[in-house]
Every structure is written in C-alpha cells, then in structure tokens.
Amino acid sequence: MLRKRAFSGGVHPPQSKITAHLPIEEVPLPPQVVIPLQQHLGAPAEPLCKAGDTVKIGDKIGEAKGFVSVPCHASVSGTVKAVEPRLHPLGGRVLSVVIDSDGKGEVASSVMPDPDYMQRSAEELRARVREAGLAGMGGAAFPTHVKLSPPPTKPIDTLLINGAECEPYLTADHRLMLEQPREILAGVQVIQKILGCKRVVIAIEDNKPDAIATMRKAVADTGERYEVMSFQAKYPQGAEKQLIKAATGREVPRGGLPMDVGCLVHNVGTAKAIYEAVALRKPLVERVVTVTGPGVRTPKNLRVPLGTSFAHLFAHCGGLTEDAGKIIMGGPLMGIAQFSDEVPVIKGTSGIVVLTQTESRLSDPLVCIGCARCVDACPMKLVPTHIQTLVRHERFAAAKEYGLLDCIECGCCAFVCPAKIPFVHLMKYGKLKVYQLERAAGPKSA
Amino acid sequence: MEKERLVSASPHLSDAESIPKIMYGVVLSLLPAAVGAVYFFGLKALWIMLIASAAAMASEAAVQAILRKRITVADGSALVTGILLAFNVPASVPLWLPAVGAVFGIVVGKHAFGGLGYNPMNPALLGRAFMLASWPTSMTVFTVAPRGGSLCGIDPATISALQIDAVTQATPLKLLKVARGVLANPSAADASSYASYAKAVGALYDSYGNLFWGKVGGCIGETSTFLLLVGALFLLYKRYIGWKIPFSFLGTVALLSWAFAGTDGLLSGKPLFHLLSGGVMLGAFYMATDMVTSPVTFRGRLLFGVGCGVITMVIRLIGGYPEGVCYSILLMNLTVPLLDRYTRPRILGEKK
Question: In this complex, do A375 and B345 lie within 8 Å of one another by their Cβ atoms?
Fold first, then answer.
C-alpha cells in the first residue's frame, strides 16, 4: 500500500462530521447585522459611514488603513443604526457598524460582473482582491492581498489550496468543494495568474472522498494540470506548515513564512471568494458557516451574511439543546469559546460548534507524569511538557530556546494529555511574556 | 436571551485517557504475572503482593495526610509500585520485608521528591535496592523452587545426574556466573568439577522452555517471560508503553550477552538465555518504561534503553551480583534530565 501523505505527529480526534451530507442553505435575512471593522490580522478599518446612512449589499463601510489591512462592506441593505464598540468573537469590544436590515437585500451598483477578468493585469486583479476586503477564510484571517504580493526575492512555485478541513465537526469547506468546485478553480486560476506559479496542489483529507472526486472531475473539465492530492485524515493536517511538509517535503524555516520555501497556501473558501471578487466584483459579504455540535438541535451548513449574530443562526437551526454548554467559534481544537451568542459571524468564522455541558466541563489539571504523549503528538516536533514546565517556572528565555515561539497552538498536546494540563493556555501566556520582555529589553542590535 | 457560558482556552476536546486509567491499565497488565506468581510459588506470593500493595497505598495516603496534600492514592500509582515491588522479592522473604521496602519506596523514593511526577527514580526499584542493601541474605538466597520446576531451571532428573551442589541451590544466572568462573580458569578446578560444570552449562542452555514458561527460581514476578509478555503486549497495544525502551534495552542485552557472556570466549554467548533469565523482561517492559522516570524524547528513550542494557550486562558479567537490572534502571533514571536535554528533537523547520 502506498504510504499516506502526512506530516509526523498529530492526533486523531473523533471526526464528528455530522453535517457532511447537508447541502449549504441560505439563512433567512437577519433583522440586524453587526460588522466589526477589524476582522483580519493587521490594522483595523476606519468607518466610512455614520448612523442614519442607508447602505446596500457591497457598499464599503470601512476603509483599510495601511498595507496589512482590508476594507469592510455592508452585508445587508438598510440603515446604519450605530457605529460603536460591540462584542467581537475574538474577545473584547471592537468598533463595529450596526445595520438594521430593510429586508430587501438590494445590491450596490458597484457589484457587476466582469466577463473579461482574466484579461486584467496581475496588479489590477490584486487591487480588486484587496478592495473586496478578502482575508483568509480558514480561520486565521490574514489579508489575502498581502499573501498575493510576495517580494520578488521570494518567488512562489507551488500554490496549495487547502481543503483539508482537519478540525472535527466542520464541513463548510467540504460542502463548498462539492457544490462550487468551478468557482474554486476559477479563483485558483486568478491566483495562478497573479503569482505565475507552476504547480498547483489541491489538498484534501482522505475522509472526503466525494470532495476529492468532485475536484478531480472539475480539474479535468478545466484542462488545467492541477494535482488533487489526498492526505491522511489527521489533525492538524490543514495547518500551513504541516500541509507544506506533507505535500512537498519542504520545511518552512523557524519563524519563517511559506513563501520562504516557495509555497503559498490559500483556503478553498478564499479561492472561491477571490473568484467572486475579480469576476463578479463582489466584496466579501457572506460566507459558509457550519453550525453544529451536540448542543445544536438541527446542525446545518449555512450561507450567512457577515455580521449575523450567532443567536440568529441558532434560531434557524432549531435552537440549542437544554444541556448546551460551550459555544465555540471555529473547530473544537483551535476554536475560541464565546461568552455570548450575540457575537457576529466574521470573515474567519468557518464554523460554530456547540458542545454539551458534560463535554465542556474542565477537569483539574494534574502534574505531568512524563508519558511523552505530547511529544509524540506535537506536529512541530517540540517537547511540550518541557516548555510548559519552563513557562510555569517563569523561565521564558529558556522556553523560547525550547521552541515556545514555534508552537502553532494546535492543541494536540493538550488533547492527548492524561494529566489534562492546559498546554495551549500556557503556551499563549509564555509567548505573551516573551514578547513583553523583548519589548521591554528594547530592539536588539544583532 | 443571554446565558452564562463556559469559556476556556482551546482545545475544547480531549481524549479519554487519564492518569488513573493508565495506572489501572498497568495493574491489569501485571495480573497474568501475578497469577503466575501464585501458581509457581504458592499462597505466600499472594501475601507478598497484598502486603506490599497495602503498605505502598497506606504510606502514600499517610504521607499526603501528614503533608496536608490532596490524597491521591486512588490514582493507582501506589498500587503499581506495590505490585512491582512484590514482583521483585523472592518467595522466601519474611513478610515484613516487602512492607518495609514499599514504605521506603513510596516515602523516600516518591514523596520526598514531591510525589507522582516528580520522583527521579522508580519507587519500586528504589525500595528493592533498599531491601537488597539492608537485608541482602533475605533478598538473594532463593530456597523455594517453583511448582513443576527447579531453582536453576534445569529439569530435576538432569540435576541428579549432574552431581553438583551449586546446581540445586542457584538460580540460572547465579549458576552461569559460578560456572563461567570455573570454566574460564580450568587449571584451578579439578577435572571432575570442571566436567560437571561444563555439563551444567549445557543443561542450562537446554532449559529455555522452563525459562520461558517460568519454571525457574527467582523473584516471584520475574520468572515467567510468557506471562510478562502477555501483559507487555497489552501495554504496547494501549500505547501505555512504547517500543523504544524495551527493544533497545533487550537488544543491547542480547548483543552484549552474545559477544561477552559465553564460556568459550568472544561471541560464544547465548543471547536468548540472558533475555529469558533474571529480571530483564520485567525490567524492560514494566520498570524501565515507567513514564515518570524515563526520557520523553525519541532518541532519549533509545539511549536510555541502551544504557540500561549496558549496565545490566556489566553487572551480570563482572559485578558482584548475578543480576543487574534493578541497578541499571535506577542508575539510568538519574541520567534522564541530561538525556532529555541533549536529545531534543529537531523542531520542524529548524536547521542543524
């Protein structure tokens, strides 16, 4: 048997892909959307509207400030009710545009198809991507146009389209590949045109054979020579560095980026959004969200206007069960637990998972017994137990030497730990302290 | 409306393993050998195991009560220590001895360092080392032959034909040690004893079956390779132990015994004999693999096993004891921090 393509380490949580067979549904228009002006890594956008303004779908409501930043757009038509700080799924309150929907769903006149989009220059295509407010839709939400602008010293020869979707429960990318393979591939063609990269790999975990087959057929229809590659279903197969290692054998250097080894990774959802941005001139105003988990009565895959509250989605999914405990934005391994169901869907919301109270109960952490399960599971080949010990003893410099900053916070170590040590929490804390101490020490002359 | 929700750092899922589950898994894996111990050495073996386990658990609870710590005796780790310690004494010991050893192992070997997770050395082995140093006669004189076998593993009929006293009193490794002393120096021995030792060694090497099934003298839990392997397979299957330590340990023992343990010079040794006799199987699968006191890195675990194998064979071949597994593991336990430090794996993307 052929050796399955995979990285070393990782874990096999139960897949729980209970929504895999459910076609994407449109969610009924929410009465109100809350669109945070920061939905991406980098500088927040500045508001372009004020209370009382009327907007249509696709109208720009926030302007990007700086290169690593993207604009925001209205996702419903209606009246701006307020521009004020609101709860944000990544924590705290963030300046947001609150729009009351008029229920008409009118689309701005700026949204108009451009059938000749492939004739445009790379520059123009990149500008359209940025204008459309694209940020990575796999979860990390890095501004897409920045990724599409590698410095000339770092040519990209391999484009990886990430359809691995390795988190349990999530099926948004899976459904997208089944339902809109042509749009995804059209986006891939745009990226390829912008970057001029030769090799394109579409990476899918082998637990989605239907998606692999669909994408293979769609690739054949385009006549392109893209490789649709099947990877062993193993978490975190979709993590950038692990995906690159498994697909190409290349290792992104410590502290480096995929472009350092000639690679670029885009999520399938981002590829589809790139197509819509350049061919339809449609900004990123909606996305596919998997609303799932044992705490949701009727789990679904939904196409959702950005800014829709989680509560609205739950209502459309039959509500939450009596024993619903924890609401997570993203998957259960890397997702972020939410205080409230009033937070909005943002560009990086790939799923909302609701666990039961029993599942979300925390167990008391015990002391490490040196079982080494975390060492075997770490996809970065760190020694998590040593790093957590060093962090606990406030030996941050030593922890950094042991690779603290290389941690991708995938949570494999915490998942397998029999002592239930909160590894990711300690890693985040340790990183924070390292950055603080380095800032306090001033810029290093090296 | 808004309801209070539980919030915590990711990940929000974890697998079902826990420390008690692992510890009771180890207890389960020790059951075949425990039953074997009672079969081979009688009810006395059962008493030894019960007393050692009770003493280990009681002393753990007592220490934690005195130190006003949370009493964690239910996690199973003290029980594992008690059973392993019991496995490491001869059937002829006075019954208070395993109790003393277990208390020493738990109090000095474990809680003096902070309890589970902090102990540098395997508490059961430390308890055994304490017993061996303090009451050497009780720990090294084997007088109870196992049911259906003999102390040295040679079949009783063969023994009477050999006409040599050492055969009836020694365990296999002891017999080999004495025999090698005689055979390596023919001029010092008279011809008839030379001949009978040569025959004894021949008979010893024909006794693999008895060694494998456990019909030999020795500590109560270490004699049956078969029963220990049954439990070890379970541990390997459950991934409570990995293959690295046992295989590098056993591989080293095999290699060194083949090279240096023969009676006819270099490369005349019988690796299988050394693997099957003494405590090497018990040590390699159940003691050296103790999670707390073994390295966590891949290369660290391999080196740890190799080190255990080297020290075991040095003691067996040139040391004062016929058997060296206990000390080899204890000594290697002390190298674990260094091994872990210098065998850190190459981080993904790191250049070396």
Answer: yes
* Chain A residues within 8 A of B349 when measuring between CB atoms: 241, 251-254, 256, 406
pLDDT at A3: 60
- Within 321-350 of A, beta carbons closer than 8 Å to B belong to 325-328, 332-342
The answer, yes or no, to whether ipTM is higher than 0.90 is yes
- Which of B3, B10, B72 is most worth mutating to test chain A (most A CB atoms within 10 A of its CB)? B10
Decide: B248 and B144 in contact? Cβ < 8 Å. Answer: no
Confidence (pLDDT) at B189: 78
pLDDT confidence of residue B1: 46
Sequence-distant (≥ 6) Cβ neighbours of residue A91 within 8 angstroms: A336
Task: Calculate the alpha carbon distances from A1 to A4, A5, A9, A249 in Å.
Answer: 9, 12, 20, 20
What DSSP designation does A21 have? T
Residues facing residue A60 across a β-bridge:
A73
Determine the average pLDDT of the residues in B35-59.
97
The structure tokens listed for B83 are 């059973």
Q: Which residue of B has its CA nearest to A343?
A: B2
The continuous run of DSSP H or E covering B141 comes out as none
B117 to A368: CB separation less than 8 angstroms, yes or no: yes
- In contact, A375 and B297? CB cutoff 8 Å: yes
- Say which DSSP state A118 is in: G
Task: Mark residue B123 as left, alpha or beta (left: phi above 0; alpha: psi -120 to 50; beta: remaining).
Answer: alpha
State the alpha helices, DSSP H only, in chain B.
19-41, 43-66, 77-87, 96-104, 123-134, 136-140, 156-162, 165-169, 172-183, 191-205, 208-213, 225-237, 244-260, 271-276, 280-282, 298-318, 325-333, 336-342
- Cα–Cα distance for residue pair B157/B161, rounded to 1 Å: 7
What is the number of other CB atoms lying within 10 angstroms of the CB of residue A33?
Answer: 27
A320 CB contacts (<8 Å, ≥6 apart)? A295, A296, A297, A314, A354
| A186 Cβ neighbours under 8 A, 6+ residues apart | A275, A279
What's residue A1's pLDDT? 42
Cβ-nearest to B22 among A333, A371, A425: A371
User: Considering only CB atoms, which residues of chain B are within 8 Å of chain A?
Assistant: 2-3, 5-15, 17-19, 21-22, 115-118, 239, 242, 291-298, 301, 340, 344-351
**Which chain B residue lies closest to A403 (C-alpha atoms)?**
B347
Can you give the pTM of this predicted structure? Answer: 0.93
Scan residues 141-200 of A and list those with Cβ closer than 8 Å to B: 168
The whole-angstrom separation of Cα B307 and Cα B321 is 18
Q: What distance lies between CA A339 and its chain's CA centroid? A: 20
Looking at residue B352, what is its pLDDT?
67
pLDDT averages per 10-residue partition of chain A, 446 residues: 76 96 97 95 93 97 93 97 96 95 95 95 96 90 93 95 97 98 97 94 97 97 95 95 95 95 96 97 97 97 98 97 95 95 95 93 90 96 97 97 96 96 97 95 65
Q: Does residue B47 have a pLDDT over 60?
A: yes
3-state secondary structure of A326: strand
Q: Edge-to-edge, what's the strand order for the sheet holding A227-231?
A: A227-231, A199-205, A158-163, A263-267
Hey, are the CB atoms on B117 and A357 less than 8 Å from each other?
no
Tokens representing residue A202 in the block = 């579409």
Closest C-alpha to A31, from A348, A350, A311, A298: A311
Asked if B297 and B345 count as a contact pair (C-beta separation under 8 A), the reply is yes
- Give yes or no for residue B80 having a pLDDT over 60: yes
